[in-house]
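U., I forgot to send this yesterday:
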Amino acid sequence: MLRSRARLACLVLALIVSGCMRTAAPVAAVDDGSLDAIAYGKVQPVRAMEVATTPVPPVYAYAAHDEPYRLDAGDRLRIVVYGQEGLTNTYTVDAGGSITMPLIGAVRARGMTPAQLAAAVTSRLKNGYLREPYVAAEVETYRPFFILGEVAAPGQYPYVPNMTIESAVAIAGGFTPRALRSSIKLTRMGEAGTAQAVVPPGTLLKPGDTVVVAERWF
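Result:
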């Protein structure tokens, strides 16, 4: 009888163990985000929930394209004519947009790049003055920029490369108490004409730009 009871107990224990070893029914699982699981196909990546958001209106900013520098009144140029000390000198673009050199007189500079001006001077010198002139031109001092409106000292200031609106305001003594700092208008002459835009303080300036800081009313 003891053996029969022992056999019965073993049989019951075996049934219990076999029941625990059965595969569980499928259950809902949340992807743990494991890259290994996704890569080896064990789970499917969970797609992000699409949430309706209010569209943000675009900020109107000045798009400054990387255009070649164009000369204008106020630019000072160093023009070198190799082998010709009498022609090599510093020249300023006058109000009419020209420079005046010995032998060849006035040469149009406004709207040209330094390389184009060098080519124009070369062409003029070839016309009865020098057989094979070699001319190079570079900007020695850029024309000034202007800052107006609600700054402590509005006016005209020398341009420095890599200058921003923020640094221009600092040069002009900073904002006045009535300055509307969120409304800074930039006017710039380009190849396509004059462009105006409201710009952020970090916008890079170019020679000849005009900055206007508006006044707030409250």
